[in-house]
Specification:
The protein has 307 residues and is mostly helical. The chain has one domain.
């Protein structure tokens, strides 16, 4: 059934929740420290995956290469969340999302082989630049955290894309295992900051909501999309995130965008609309998947039907 759903639709759901979750987290900052919010997000998501997928079974049946992939992915998730919330505490949501896109565009550029796609990049890069605005002067530490988060996000896409097509597990099982690794990695650093929330039922409930809306729904739909989209296509579609985040920031947080930010959003959306994956690139990726024994389509392998 999942193969009949267009992968672009999975991405739309992912993009929406990638922005909604952080917006809710900003509201939680009034009750819990930044690192505490990061821990609540990761720990609650890890608990959901543990109950749903029993991801340790996926980890146990992997070879050394697969376990290394999951360990790196989990460490990246932990660091990415810490840097993201540290930036979000200092910068508007739309700005953080825009900076997050900058290294990702390099992944899209690696797959651009046509004038049309170079044109898409030529639209997307200035759009992100306009969205970034002049925040570097006003909040240098926030911008530093945002760029660190951006590097982690690019690494997340690379590792998540590999895991989505790994033949020995389903991508969602791998995601659950990586989230458990992230929870173990971030706990010594962040759990002291989360301690007040452990006796605050409302904060715990809000943290669970942030975890589900930020790390369960979008990351699961990421996996469903990545399994059927070439990495370069997915990376350029990520450029929608600043636009979505700007809209969510307006609706949820009353962060009104300026005319420059609206222009940036328009350029980013135009770049996404213009992009097309070259047919020969798609054929190369499918051939590469077959050589490594990895199914290209979500319905192509038995791993997608495991529980």
């Amino acid at each position: 059934m999942g193969s009949r759903v267009p992968p672009q639709l999975y991405f739309v759901v992912s993009a929406l929740f990638h922005a909604l979750g952080p917006a809710f987290a900003v509201l939680l900052f009034a009750r819990v420290d930044v690192l505490g919010v990061a821990w609540l997000r990761i720990a609650s998501a890890a608990a959901v995956f543990a109950l749903w997928r029993r991801p340790w079974r996926a980890l146990a049946r992997l070879d050394r290469r697969g376990r290394g992939l999951l360990l790196r992915w989990g460490a990246i998730l932990a660091l990415m969340n810490v840097c993201f919330y540290s930036a979000l505490d200092r910068l508007p949501l739309g700005t953080v999302a825009a900076i997050e896109f900058l290294p990702v565009i390099l992944l899209a550029a690696a797959g651009a082989r046509t004038l049309r796609n170079f044109g898409a990049l030529a639209l997307g890069v200035p759009g992100v630049y306009l969205l970034t605005d002049v925040r570097i002067e006003g909040e240098p530490l926030g911008v530093a955290f945002a760029f660190a988060n951006a590097v982690c996000f690019a690494l997340y896409i690379v590792h998540a894309h590999r895991a989505a097509r790994y033949s020995e597990m389903s991508g969602i099982d791998g995601l659950g295992a990586a989230m458990l690794v992230a929870a173990v990695a971030v706990t010594p650093l962040a759990v002291p900051a989360a301690a007040p929330a452990l006796i605050d039922p409302l904060a715990l409930l809000a943290g669970l909501g942030v975890g589900i809306s930020s790390s369960v729904i979008p990351y699961v739909t990421d996996q469903l999309a990545m399994r059927r989209l070439p990495r370069a296509t997915y990376a350029l579609m990520i450029s929608l995130l600043p636009a979505v985040a700007t809209v969510i920031g307006l609706v949820v947080l009353a962060q009104v965008p300026s005319a420059v930010e609206v222009a940036g959003v328009s350029l980013v959306v135009a770049g996404v609309a213009l992009h097309r994956e070259p047919p020969e690139r798609q054929a190369q990726e499918r051939a590469g998947d077959r050589e490594e024994g990895r199914p290209h389509d979500a319905a192509a392998g038995p791993s997608t039907r495991r529980r």
